[in-house]
């Protein structure tokens, strides 16, 4: 008796999709079978998100289609940009499709908590099912997004940059989950810019460039250099650019900083031209420090920029002092998703594009010239032009807008919270070079990143947060082991 092979859990067949006459994907085909992890990689704008959304049913292809051997209802998606309800609890978000028992009009919250708790434990969450999503960090929300997908017991699952907001410990947990899903026979489509994760987890790699599949190969046949070359169409320089030595003059001085809640007693200095990395585990207080320095939270302690004390809790005072802030939550805090890209690019420099500051009249010619210059500096790819909505950009290009808007004038200090989250290798290299150039021109940089190699590779010194306090500062030659020791409460 001959048994026919099982149909792939996900089969993408000759799919094409255009927006405004511009092809986002063109004739894309590949499959994912049960018990297989297929990595989907490519630069931002290559078409990965479009394919993900077509598989998930939020977009219709213009031609071609997707079939599901597992049944469409058994396919779940973990989105990079979380699709959670901020004012509901974690349990309510995880079980949003079954809040009420069959035949009941009552939400049984105790039952929700009991059901959600083991799923949260599975993803290594350090918070309970009763926590409100609005109070969680971006990384914690990503864990909720993963738990939500796992709670449905899918036979096929699409992961879109699931570890982008997580540190090393949480990443290991998520990769362990993916490996267990594969062992359980689940089909996994894994979208990631972390090529070390691709090498470890996947059996096959599908590479996209300019909306097309340029390679579909066993993972073992492609080393990192070959993958990068396929993704960007050229060979990339290896390693991190070397920053120039910092100057002796302090640009930022922080003393006994606190936000009145999560962090307290934080003190450090950043010199002109210095890249000061801030590392730590999720929930350690890195983002809270950044927001308190910029004036978005807290009124405890003293912050000076170039010797000038700032009024605490005042974002206006921070900007006027020459401070810039690149948020980790680009979609909600960094740009206007429903407005033209040019408005997000020019928002910080409105004074430079107004005919009259008093009346607030815009000079469209000045705005066009300014925004085109800023877009060029970060090599922004906006296929619909700068008049298209910010939401039309890929995640990496959205991040470029969030960074570019602060470059109207060279800032004295720029705070970057997860600046390369969800960005491809080519765009990362461009941003690294931009940061090193800014530092070389005298800008002080406070860099927060969950990518340990990134922090160590770019920073002159690294401060390590633990439980809301600065556990120590490491100089040149800092190692991952030294950072992790401090981040977990050990001695320097």
UniProtKB/TrEMBL annotation:
SMART domains: AAA
Gene3D superfamilies: P-loop containing nucleotide triphosphate hydrolases (3.40.50.300)
Molecular function, one GO term: ATP binding
Domain of life, source organism: Bacteria
Domain (ABC transporter): residue spans on this chain: 10-235, 247-492
Cell membrane among keywords: yes
Keyword terms, alphabetized: ATP-binding, Cell membrane, Membrane, Nucleotide-binding, Repeat, Sugar transport, Translocase, Transport
Record flagged with keyword Nucleus: no
PROSITE patterns: ABC_TRANSPORTER_1, ABC_TRANSPORTER_2
One Pfam family this sequence matches: ABC_tran
Protein name: Sugar ABC transporter ATP-binding protein
UniProt lineage: Bacteria, Bacillati, Actinomycetota, Actinomycetes, Micromonosporales
